[in-house]
Prior knowledge:
Two copies of one chain form a homodimer.
Chain A: H1 6-14, H2 21-34, H3 40-47, E1 52-57, H4 64-78, E2 82-87, H5 95-103, E3 109-113, H6 119-128, E4 132-135, E5 145-148, H7 151-164, E6 170-175, H8 178-193, E7 200-204, H9 210-221, E8 229-232, H10 235-247, E9 257-259, H11 266-270, E10 276-278, H12 281-296, E11 304-306, E12 310-312
Helix pairs in contact in A: 4-12, 5-6, 7-8, 9-10
The structure holds a DNA duplex (16 and 16 nucleotides).
Domain HTH lacI-type (chains A, B): 1-47
Protein name (chains A, B): GntR family transcriptional regulator
GO molecular function (chains A, B): DNA-binding transcription factor activity; transcription cis-regulatory region binding
Amino acid sequence: MAGVAPITVSRAINRPELVTKDTLDHIREVIARTGYVPNLLAGGLASKRSRLVAAIVPTIGNSIFAEAVECLTDRLGEAGYKVLLGLSGYPSSREDELLATVLSRRPDAVFLTGITHSPESRQRLLAAKIPVVETWDLTPTPIDMLVGFSHEKLGRAVAAYLIGKGYRRLGLVWASDERAAVRRRGFEEAAAERGVTDIQVAILPAPGNLKLGRDGLAKLLDGPQRPDAVFCSSDALAQGVLTEAQARGLSVPGDLAIMGFGDLEFAPYTYPALSTVRIDRRAIGLLAAEAMLARFEDKPVEKIVDIGFEIVEREST
Amino acid sequence: MAGVAPITVSRAINRPELVTKDTLDHIREVIARTGYVPNLLAGGLASKRSRLVAAIVPTIGNSIFAEAVECLTDRLGEAGYKVLLGLSGYPSSREDELLATVLSRRPDAVFLTGITHSPESRQRLLAAKIPVVETWDLTPTPIDMLVGFSHEKLGRAVAAYLIGKGYRRLGLVWASDERAAVRRRGFEEAAAERGVTDIQVAILPAPGNLKLGRDGLAKLLDGPQRPDAVFCSSDALAQGVLTEAQARGLSVPGDLAIMGFGDLEFAPYTYPALSTVRIDRRAIGLLAAEAMLARFEDKPVEKIVDIGFEIVEREST
DNA sequence: GTGAAAGCGCTAACAA
DNA sequence: TTGTTAGCGCTTTCAC
Lengths: 317, 317
């Protein structure tokens, strides 16, 4: 319709600097007039670049993963990429089949949650020969790239922190998820090194929520050793623990200190008594996006990025 | 590699009932052995069905939209569809360009938030000739299909409820978003009909959060008329209002009744004193998915689905 | 700076 | 039940 070859239109859209201004203006005018929408499926097939990035997370509902996905989507969107959402559920039960179906869309990169993947999945990812960013954890042997933090160190740090504050009867209200298990191990090891060994644990199904947190604390309080400090594997559980403590008339942190994990926004303001461990969730999405974009342009990339964590102590008001 | 024509492999994958068991088994064995992954980009181009559904929401971080998207993704995933995530921000500032870029991926359907779209967007959607589901609101004239509820009715219902309880000095802590504005209108109209007109309003930027809620209540309390009941445009704001009330030593609902909107999971347990309006967020995603799937199979579909709402009253404990 | 030819990896339509 | 042919709408490559 513009009286030029298809390839010229393609250039006008994708590499306008290769087209004379006059031709460009004319093509753009025709595009605007006709409402032409390029077909990126066809473009992707021809160029072998889908401009799609797959993001596989357990869940985005009320969760720490939503913000990371949001940042990833925003940053990649700026560069013309769209995010294909894959929800694997807890405990990553569907990651394998999800990965298979998602790879058939030929994404240009994959964002993964965690570092534990089946041999088939690893194999498939390697075979796809695309940038892969694992997140939320640390390992010296990522599939490709990694943005996360050490759950073991985090567990250790919290144990040291609580024991340093004088607490000795420690309890855990804990979801049965894999990364949480590593935090627990770090916590128990560091506690043992300080002579605290009799740690009470209430294990609950993932993902945690307020109700489960209440149940968890109830279990601990009715157990053999009443804890004076409870560390929770998520802020959602911590809220439940706090609620149960309030319902039972316990003062926080006087009778019972409570620590959460994740620093969900509602926690800090709502419960000034509730300390937690802050993770820069937005950084995970952003850094993952940057890593992918760098790789698309063959720029050098840091393979492993440790974003760390921060213990946030809140005063009772 | 399997010694059959490409189309036979295609059938073995997509319509196995058309292939003899022996051929099928053989093809499947070869697929498993070689790790063949079909290219759905090519498939989509050839069949004109991308098996992609675009979901455009303002945000998924800490938000009521995340769960709807999650349900949509789950249900569509069962049917072999993947969700392309589009985040338009508040106040849908990027919806137009987002829609353009998303449509170039040739989605088989589109999930939209709200019923207000630019003429260009409506035009583009109509031109795409695919199922479109608008959500979170109601209108007699949807672009195509609709799953939502009436914000005006909801506002009216809350006004009637509060006034019925005897409250007369009403306040609103309100985000400046479009659907909230409709709820406000309904609220004020119904209040006026009952003789309550002097409603104090604190307007805050969207999306609301706890901090903004605190600020909002502070503004109202320092204003000319101290409210005895505050309705908030979201539960996030309501939490802030509650926090501020507690910080000022007000009893809830004794000195100040607070109503939220959205029924986020943390609200009911955390604040037994906090009533709210429950929206079935999961139903929105699920019904939208069902509507799309029905249309894909040319089954009859209810064009407009009102999922209603429910005032959830909580006792103080 | 622009174009012609070929082909990306599938599936629709029709044929055997 | 299986195969042949053609073509989806782009981009690559190479030529002009």
